[in-house]
Amino acid sequence: MNTNLLGTIQHYEKYNAWRVGDTRLDWSGAQPGQDVYQGIPAEGTPLVWTTNNVLSPGYQELNTVLFGLLMHVRSPSQATCSGTGAAIPPYTSNNHMGRCGYINVFTFDFPTCIINVFP
User: From which domain of life does this come (predicted)?
Assistant: First the structure.
């Protein structure tokens, strides 16, 4: 798994440290060799808060949903996803399933999601 450098300002320092050595998408603690940030180990794959506000340090042009981020969302039943990259999941799960190589948008406590192709 490869992650992209999103920025080099202070806003991204924790993300940039924890992405080093992260080779699998997970939320179950640091992997062997995954970097630490100020002595704090990662809790899994790092994400960073972003926004579509061009005046914010967290601005990312691919963010089309105002602001925020989510990790490991659970819903009571298999999520229904829409969007240009939506597909039928390969198996049934109580969790949302993202699609690698696409823009995945999940909203906390909602059973739906959006999966779009990159522009």
Answer: Eukaryota
